[in-house]
What does this fold into?
Amino acid sequence: MERILVVEDDLALSAGLCFELDAAGYISSPAYNCKKAEYLLDSDSFSLAILDVNLPDGNGFDLCRRLKAAHPGLPVIFLTANDLEEDVLTGFDLGAEDYVTKPFHMQILLRRVEVALRRSGKKPEPQGERWSDGYLSLDFSGLSAVRGKEKLTITPNEYKLLKLMTDNGGQVLTRQVLLDSGAGQTGADWGIYRTGDRYGGSIPGVPSGELPLYQRSLRRPGICGRRLCAGGRSLS
It folds into this structure.
């Protein structure tokens, strides 16, 4: 996972930033002043730094200069209320990847973080694009799967069904829920059956009663409301 240093002296804003970054799959480390930020930079490695400009013991511009001298490849995003053209230009002159002014939209900031990491060659792994339980492995971005040692190709309709199930681990998904999700079309019942058979089939040498529970549940769900599982757990 990508580690992100958050240097922000507003405790509430810092906590909110770290929460959203962690929820997006990053590992955040908060610092409320320059001294703490420099300590963290010396003792740990980071993929990106988010810096406020106005800090209790200095300013983000000076911190960025020192940061870039010690870690020239570390991308920086300034996040500040300073919206003067001179400040924005100073931030970019110091080598910042981006300059975001407050107030801001969190989803836009997260996208800018993603872009900054991509530019620096430190691409975050897309969340939810891979799933595995040790036997069945799904690669949704590549539309492929491996069941045991057998390589399979995921059709677009199977993609919708499997993605829905793996995204809803621990929840009951009936046949109707799957059809309403957008996977429903002519022959959709057969599509559900076929997906269950292909990805929830038998494991050589393993009695059917000892199959992973999602595999037993997936097979031939029927039209009368028998339930499918999601995310590798039995939801019968």
Summary: The mean pLDDT is 75.
